[in-house]
DNA sequence: ATAGTATTTAGACATTTGTCTAAATATACA
DNA sequence: TGTATATTTAGACAAATGTCTAAATACTAT
């Protein structure tokens, strides 16, 4: 939960999630979309992975990243709970 | 949007939101619920206010804080969008 | 084996963040 | 007016964060 909020709290990471909504992508393809260095993107991908917001799968020399939306449900549940004020 | 994610990215602030779900509270009442100093809580309240997650209303020497859930809708919308993968 | 490509790991560095204490501001009341 | 209460503002400081370059690892193909 904590790691999910952390994962979402960076514009680059949110943009990565938006990209992955369209298509699964390799780390390299993701890097191409940003002006940030490869290692920095790799670090962001690691945080997203820790938050279980993405899944990484190795295919040969590439690593494919894809969205994992099950964790998003948890956050939505929490937000919905907050939304139902008692008073 | 950015400030909302930031607002949500701290356990103390999330706990404050959960408290305010039950009842509107004064700054002092909120401080009592934590072991953190008054100024620190005040700072968290300020961030929540900037994110428009809470509303502050002065009543005499007290300041009442209450939830503002309209911003939560925005986040939920974004999350829903992420959830609807294209591929 | 060697060289090339894809990606991550390591380490450094500036910025942001969360916390604190001390001081300032605002209101209530005697 | 003066004192107590409620809350914020200011400034300091350690820890966390996002970025970079250089080096390491893993796989492919010549």
Write a brief structural summary.
The structure is a homodimer of 87-residue chains. Chain A has 87 residues and is an alpha+beta fold.
Features:
homodimer, 5 helices, Arc Repressor Mutant, subunit A, about 90 residues, DNA-binding, alpha+beta, 3 strands
Largest interface: A-B, 28 and 28 residues
Tell me the distance between the termini of chain A: 26 Å
The radius of gyration computed from the alpha-carbon positions of chain A, rounded to a whole number of angstroms, is 14 Å
How many structural domains in the coordinates of chain A? 1
Pick out the low-confidence regions of chain A: none
Largest sheet of chain A: 3 strands, antiparallel
CATH class of chain A, named: Mainly Alpha
Number of helices of chain A: 5
Q: If strands are numbered along the chain, what order do they take across the biggest sheet of chain A?
A: 1-3-2
Helical fraction of chain A equals: 55-70%
Descriptive report:
Two copies of one chain form a homodimer. Chain A has 87 residues and is an alpha+beta fold. The first copy, chain A, has helices at residues 2-8, 11-22, 27-32, 38-50, 70-83, and strands at 25-26, 54-59, 62-67. In chain A, strands 1-3-2 form a three-stranded antiparallel sheet. The longest helix of chain A is centred in the last third of the chain and has 14 residues, at 70-83. The mean pLDDT of chain A is 96. The interface between A and B is medium-sized, with 28 and 28 residues. Chain A binds a DNA duplex (30 and 30 nucleotides) through residues 10, 12, 26-28, 31, 36-40, 42-46, 58, 60-63.
